[in-house]
User: Fold Prefoldin from Neohortaea acidophila.
Amino acid sequence: MATAQQQGQQIDLATLSAQQLSQVKKQLDDEVQHLSSSYQNLKNAQQKFRQCIKNVQDGVAESTKDKPILVPLTSSLYVPGKLADTEHVIVDVGTGFYVEKTTKDAETFYNAKVEELGKNIKDLETIVNGKANNLRMVEEVLRQKMIAEQQPGQAGASGK
Assistant:
């Protein structure tokens, strides 16, 4: 059963027992929860890149040159500093690597990241919706099986 699902083959839900349907439902619940969490993480990353664009546009201006600013070392640690160059910034390009870029190149870099994440978010949204639809179908078949299993028992009990 699991092998068929992992390979993307279709399974006739009506042929599965209630216990098997419950297992499929649990697996789909876990997948939807994991994918939804991943979706939210991508949205958060996209928002951080948008904030980076705003920071480059607003924070690196000629009016801020040589004025005291707080430089973030981590998400919660800032140190005092002064902006010496309004034409160049240091950009975190991932995995701890930093590159000096012009402010225009930095904006282009962050815009590309936002766009790429947008595509990934859209693809993931399609997958989440598909899994959620599968989950609803499994829940409906499981509900029908539970009702069908209870009805013969009730008929036999009332006949006694």
In short: Residues 103-159 form the longest helix (57 residues). DSSP finds three helices and four strands in the chain.
